[in-house]
Amino acid sequence: MLKLSTRSRYALRAMIELARHEGRGPVLLRRVAEAQRISPKYLEQLTIPLRRAGLLRGERGPSGGYELAKPAPEITALDIVAAVEGPLDLLNCVGNATACDRTATCAARQLWVRVGEAMSGALARETLADLSESQRAASQANAVSYQI
């Protein structure tokens, strides 16, 4: 089974949480961790590549915290996953044609290239704004209502 790592899943969840607070100033990392049930220490480690990629901005001080470095509609799921995972090549030979002497004649490699392109394309089509809206809608749909 092909799986993305916990880094990708948690980074995406944290960024969705920050997108939900977009425009309201920095959010404390521990609040993001609580809301998404992610270890604060682990989340702290994820902020490093996200900041390096220009997706996240941190502010120190009493009113500090983290916020998106760009508007949510300009950040894709691919941006986030690539920031924490690196290149999304399924196999070494996909990203490096010299990794195997069969590269030029390997039909399986061409399949893996297409699978990788499809995966990257799907991630590139989903913006953080889209995901934040989906999260809001899902949260509302699952909210308990006591109206009669």
CATH class: Mainly Alpha
Question: What structural category do the secondary elements indicate?
Answer: mainly alpha
Rg from alpha-carbon coordinates = 18 Å
- Beta-strand proportion: 5-15%
Low-confidence stretches: none
What is the CATH H-level superfamily? Winged helix-like DNA-binding domain superfamily/Winged helix DNA-binding domain
Structural shape: globular
Helix content: 55-70%
Number of helices: 7
Largest beta-sheet characterization: 2 strands, antiparallel
What is the second-level CATH architecture? Orthogonal Bundle
Strand arrangement, major sheet: 1-2
How many domains would you count in the coordinates?
1
Strand element count: 2
First and last CA, distance:
46 Å
Q: CATH topology, what is it called?
A: Arc Repressor Mutant, subunit A
Determine the mean pLDDT: 90
SSE run? HHHEEHHHH
Brief description of this entry?
The chain is mainly α.
How would you describe this structure to a colleague?
With 148 residues, the chain is mainly alpha-helical. The chain has one domain: Winged helix-like DNA-binding domain superfamily/Winged helix DNA-binding domain (Arc Repressor Mutant, subunit A). The protein is built from 7 helices and 2 strands. The radius of gyration is 18 Å and the shape is globular. The model has no long low-confidence stretch (mean pLDDT 90).
